[in-house]
Structures are given as structure tokens and as C-alpha cells.
Amino acid sequence: MPRAALLSSEGDFMAKPTENRTKASNVGALERASSRSWHDWLALLDAAGAASLSHSDIAKIARDAMPSSLKNPEWWAQDAAIAFEQHMGLRVPGQSSAGDFRVSVSRTLGFGRDDAIERWIASFAAVTHLGHALDNARTSRTDKRSFWRASLEGAGKVEVAALAKEPVRSLVTVNHTALTSDTDIEPWRAHWKTCLSSL
């Protein structure tokens, strides 16, 4: 979108909620975390020429503008960069900076992280998903999370991560990346939600 389309006749940067193509909940969370209005974020990033910068450069500008007291400022800077790119039409919701699309769903379950991954494997590792077979399935583990990863033939990659919670619970997140179209997002979101609900 040309910059002129975002300017009023007086030259003021406009950011009405109806003009914002980002998800409203994301912008509200960013405003609360950063103590900076969405209008102010747009003005700051526009003044820095962010519309012509890479995602990482936009995120650096946003990081420098975050309050020093904010926890996880790098994460919020990524959020600000993505919201700006979506607002400017540089990407649409669900699209990565590389141009592909992704979807993520999560659910807290009443068993440990390793058990969650074992249940996932027992239920879903030997089936096709929306007509796509799995390939190169593997597991791994860190101090905090247990993982199961696989490729979906012709439909990107999927990662299931289980984060330990207390007491014996886990937050299980399905991240599906490398989708080729935004029209793929909602069918896959519904599929992964159904899978998580059945664990």
C-alpha cells in the first residue's frame, strides 16, 4: 500500500481501527504491553521508513522503542513488526516473513509433556492428515519441552511441542509451517484443533 494512502489531507498518519488489517486482539495486546498506541507505533515505524525494510530491521526498531521494564521485549518487537507488515499489506495474517503461511493451535492437557507426545504419536503418527502422508517423523527433547516433528507430503511441516506445566499438565502446541496459501490456514486449524481435542 502506498504511504500516501495512509495520510490524511493534512499529512497526519491515520490509523483508524477499520483501516487496520491486523487482528484487533493482537494490536490491543501490543498497545497494553508497550504502553504505546497503535497510531503511535504506525507513526514511529513510518518515520523510520519501515515499509521498505526487512522484517528483522523492523523488529530492531520496535525493540529499541519498547519500555525498559517490559518482559520479553524481543517477542513483543516481533509482534509489532508483524502487525506493521500486515497493516501495510506486506504480509497477510498467517503469512511468515519468507512468504509462506503457517497456523498454530494449542491446548492445555491433564498429563505430562512426554506422555502428551507419546499419546500424539499413538493417535496420529500413522495416519494421513487431510490426505497428506507423514514423512521423516522424529522426536526430541529439551529441558522444558518435548517435541514431535514431521513433514507432510505436499503440505509443509508440522511440529508438536509439549511444555511442562504444574501440577502434572502440559501445554501442547501444534505449529504447521510452509503452507503455500492463506486458504490452507483455516482447514488445517480446524484439523489440528480436532486432533488436540481427541487426545
Topology record:
Elements: H1 24-34, H2 38-47, H3 55-65, H4 73-87, E1 101-109, H5 113-124, E2 134-141, E3 145-152, E4 157-165, E5 169-179, H6 185-198
Can you walk me through this structure?
The chain has 199 residues and is an alpha+beta fold. Helix content is 37%, strand content 23%. A hairpin with a 3-residue loop joins strand 4 and strand 5. Helix 1 packs across helix 4 and helix 3 crosses helix 4.
The CATH homologous superfamily name of the largest domain equals START domain
Rg (CA only):
19 Å
Tell me the series of helices and strands, N- to C-terminal.
HHHHEHEEEEH
Query: Architecture of the largest domain, according to CATH?
Result: 2-Layer Sandwich
CATH level 3 topology of the largest domain? Alpha-D-Glucose-1,6-Bisphosphate, Chain A, domain 4
Largest sheet: 5 strands, antiparallel
Number of helices: 6
- Can you tell me the overall shape? globular
Number of strands: 5
> What is the residue-averaged pLDDT?
85
**Distance between the first and last residues' Cα:** 44 Å
- Side-by-side strand order of the widest sheet: 1-5-4-3-2
How helical, in percent, are the residues?
25-40%
Under the CATH scheme, which class of the largest domain?
Alpha Beta
Class per helix and strand makeup: alpha+beta
Number of domains: 2
Uncertain regions: pLDDT < 50 for 5+ in a row? 1-20
Strand content: 15-25%
